[in-house]
Structures are given as structure tokens and as C-alpha cells.
Design brief:
- The protein is an alpha+beta fold.
- The chain folds into 2 domains: 155 residues, no CATH class; 271 residues, Anthranilate synthase (4-Layer Sandwich), CATH 3.60.120.
- It is 34% helix and 34% strand.
- The chain contains 11 helices and 22 strands.
- The strands form 2 sheets. Strands 1, 2, 3, 7, 8, 9, 10, 11, 12, 18, 21 and 22 form a 12-stranded antiparallel β-sheet that branches. Strands 4, 5, 6, 13, 14, 15, 16, 17, 19 and 20 form a 10-stranded antiparallel β-sheet that branches.
- β2 and β3 form a beta hairpin.
- The mean pLDDT is 90.
């Protein structure tokens, strides 16, 4: 197997244009700060499930990396991601058919990618070349396809997504406020009894519209509203998993490892003075300190065996985004020579911020009591580069969109001092991250 990669400059094109143009089953979009990219197609697929899904994926990635070298490897590493995809909250595929196409873990080698860095865009194409095929002829054909694609993208990029026409819609919660408060009480009782250090209980809301939901417009709205978050979308057929995540699971650049503990929440203030007061109260709140400390400990214990030294600040900082603020502790270290991105993912996921602690017992309790098929909500979304590094973000502040429906998800961390009504309010704040942009389409 031989892979070739060709690139052409594509300045003036937004990666959203490529995502909008996806006609294959697979599409991917990623945006954070001055870096954004979109991909389409799937030339090679890595899927795995079960307790060994990350280890199995790591082995397959290594096999793929060994088949890519020379100019192709250099282009992959320097300009765009080798693999894109994600994984679910659970080690087995979701039982709810709405998550069809989103297995326990799935990453793909895309056929095309449009990467934008600091306003400069590059369109890349990938092709597999047989042993009896002229590489020069294959490159010429691939470049010709890219030039045609560039023209289509530049024409398409001027389209104004979405519209302001009134739409008919309804919003339905998966359970009543009283039922969610009861679930929080049960989780709090289990923590108070010493069975758990923390539990994260979630709920979902269905947004049903008479008209198809414009995923492109939704992504544009999320990117504008939450510039400090990572806006993402994973397209599988007629379904798209979309979100604006505030929480990095893990990033590997060279041997540098970065992760973040995000837990403890408060609303934003309507004035700078109120915002500062709410932030100070969040820092000093014993309940939020306890919840946050559990996540920091969990990440430290997960990362330590695979890292040479960890830098963990003694006190968290404030992560302020639109509508909500969190306690955040950045964690950094140096990756061991025999470890990789998927080894780290297997150890840190699911973090105490999305499941609880102890992890296995928390997952078992949630399976019995939460009665919610999370799918890729609470899982991870990201990319792998040709050096074996990459970046994964938690699938939070997210929704699964299919046609006229969107399923939104949000959760709250429960400790002994949790108040059921306050935790319900916290989920409402988190649900607004997707609900408000949906209402503005």
C-alpha cells in the first residue's frame, strides 16, 4: 500500500465550506482559535470496541503510520491531521438506534482536508496508489481533482448559511425536573455513604423542528459564540455529532502532554463586578472545590504511569466562557517513549468530570440508575497526526443532529454537598450552549 498526498493553496475558503460540501458518509469539522479544518471521505477506517479498544486502535494506527513515509508523511505531519474521529462514553456501541454509525471508537483517514491557520488555507487530497500504478500519473490526477474542488469551494464559501425565518419547534426533556432532582439525591446519598467520591449524572433534551436543522449554520453560531472552546462536528451519513467543548482530554505534541481538569460551575455575571463576585464565590465554594479536586486527582493518577513528571498547579484558575464559568486546572507532563496518544486516552477516559470516581463503580451505577444512552456524549472527539501525537476533547456541550431533530446532553457532578435544585440549574446552563444557537437558526 502506498499513499500520496497533494496540496494546493486555497486562501479565501473557510473549512466550513468543505464540511458543507461533504457528500460522502464521513465528514469532520474542528475549530479553535486561529486553527480550523474540515475533512471529507474515509479512505481507511479504524474501529474498535470493548475494554481494549484504545490499545487495539493504537496498534492499528502504528500499522498505518508504518505504511506512510517520505513526502506523504511529511505533508501529513506538517499540514493536516492523519486521522479524525472519536469514541463513545462507553466501551460498547450505544444501544439506542439514534447513535447508528457512531461505534465505540472510530477514526478515519480522510480523502480531503481543508486546513486554515492564521487566515491561510490549504486544500489537501489523499489517494492510495497500487504497486502497478504510476505515481506520477496518480499525483497529476489527484492534483487536477483538487484544483476543481478548490473552484467549487471558493464559489460555495460565499453562501450565507441559515436564515431568520420563524420556525415551528418544540423542546422535550427526557425526564421531569422532579425526576432529575431525585436522581441527584440518589447520587448524593451514594456519595455520602462513602461508596463514591463523585458521580456525574446527565440528562437530555430533544429539540424537534418542522424544518431540517442547518448544521452548517449551527457550527457557525457555535464558533462565533464560544471562541475559547473547541467547536467540532462528526458527520456520519444523515447524522452529525456537534458541540463546543470547553474541556481538553489530552494533547500530545512531540513528547509534551497537556490535559485539563474542568469541574465546578457558576453562571456569568451581567456586569464585570457581578462576574468577579460569582467567580470569587466559585473559587471559595467548598462543594465545587471538592468536585474539582476529585477530577484533578483522577487525571493525575491516570497520567502519572505514562508520563515523566507532571506539573499540576496547587490551585485552579477560572475558565470563563459565554454563559458559564468553571474551575480549571491545567496539567502538563512529558510522555514516556513507549507511550502514545491512545494509551493516554485509555487511561484518562472517562474522567471523573464525565463519569465519577471510582471510575468503574461509577459507570456501573450510572448504567443502572441514569437510564440514559449517552452515545458519544461524554466521550472524545479529535485527531491523530503523522507523528503519533494529536488532540482529543471531551464530547461535552454537544448534540446529535439528524434531520429535523437534535438531541442535547448535559450533566452535573454530584458530591456530598450537592443541592438537587442547583444541579438542575447547572444542567440548564450547559444545555443553553446548544439550545440558544438552535433557536437563532
Amino acid at each position: 500500500m502506498r499513499w500520496i498526498v497533494e496540496t494546493v493553496p486555497c486562501d479565501g475558503a473557510d473549512p466550513l465550506a468543505l464540511f458543507d460540501a461533504v457528500r460522502e458518509s464521513d465528514g469532520f469539522f474542528w475549530s479553535r482559535a486561529s486553527h480550523a479544518f474540515a475533512t471529507s471521505g474515509a479512505l481507511h477506517t479504524i474501529e474498535s470496541r470493548g475494554a481494549q479498544r484504545f490499545a487495539d486502535a493504537a496498534n492499528e494506527v502504528q500499522d498505518l503510520l508504518s505504511s506512510i513515509g517520505g513526502r506523504a508523511g511529511a505533508v501529513f505531519e506538517a499540514q493536516f491531521p492523519l486521522l479524525v474521529g472519536g469514541f463513545g462514553c462507553d466501551a460498547e456501541p450505544a444501544s439506542d438506534p439514534i447513535w447508528a454509525g457512531f461505534p465505540a471508537l472510530r477514526f478515519v483517514l480522510p480523502a480531503r482536508a481543508l486546513v486554515q491557520r492564521h487566515g491561510t488555507s490549504t486544500l489537501a487530497g489523499v489517494a492510495e496508489v497500487g504497486v502497478h500504478t504510476s505515481q506520477a500519473a496518480a499525483r497529476a490526477a489527484l492534483r487536477a481533482r483538487l484544483l476543481r474542488e478548490r473552484e467549487r469551494l471558493l464559489q460555495r464559501d460565499g453562501r450565507e448559511p441559515g436564515g431568520s425565518a420563524a420556525r415551528d419547534y418544540r423542546v422535550e426533556a427526557d425526564r421531569s425536573p422532579a425526576q432529575y432532582r431525585a436522581l441527584v439525591e440518589a447520587a448524593r446519598d451514594a456519595v455520602t455513604a462513602g461508596v463514591f467520591e463523585k458521580l456525574v449524572v446527565a440528562r437530555s433534551v430533544r429539540f424537534a423542528s418542522r424544518e431540517p436543522i442547518d448544521v452548517l449554520a449551527l457550527l457557525g453560531g457555535l464558533r462565533r459564540s464560544y471562541p475559547s472552546c473547541t467547536t467540532f462536528a462528526v458527520k456520519r451519513g444523515d447524522r452529525s455529532f456537534v458541540g463546543a467543548s470547553p474541556e481538553r482530554l489530552v494533547r500530545v505534541r512531540g513528547r509534551q502532554v497537556d490535559a485539563a481538569a474542568v469541574a465546578g460551575s457558576a453562571p456569568r455575571g451581567r456586569s464585570p463586578e457581578e462576574d468577579e463576585r460569582l467567580g470569587t464565590a466559585l473559587r471559595e465554594c467548598k462543594k465545587d472545590q471538592e468536585e474539582h479536586a476529585a477530577v484533578v486527582r483522577g487525571l493525575r493518577e491516570a497520567l502519572a504511569p505514562l508520563c515523566v513528571g507532571l506539573d499540576v498547579p496547587e490551585a485552579p484558575r477560572l475558565l470563563r466562557i459565554e454563559g458559564i464559568q468553571h474551575l480549571e486546572t491545567p496539567i502538563a507532563g512529558t510522555l514516556r517513549d513507549d507511550a502514545n496518544l491512545f494509551d493516554l486516552a485509555g487511561r484518562v477516559h472517562p474522567t471523573p468530570a464525565v463519569a465519577g470516581a471510582p471510575r468503574d463503580a461509577a459507570l456501573a451505577w450510572l448504567a443502572r440508575r441514569e437510564a440514559l444512552v449517552r452515545g458519544w456524549y461524554g466521550g472524545g472527539v479529535g485527531f491523530v497526526d503523522a507523528a503519533g501525537g494529536g488532540e482529543l476533547w471531551a464530547g461535552l456541550r454537544s448534540a446529535l443532529v439528524c434531520g429535523t431533530d437534535a438531541r442535547l446532553y448535559a450533566g452535573a457532578g454530584i458530591v456530598a454537598a450537592s443541592d438537587p435544585e442547583a444541579e438542575l440549574v447547572e444542567t440548564r446552563l450547559k444545555l443553553r450552549a446548544l439550545l440558544v444557537p438552535l433557536l437563532e437558526l
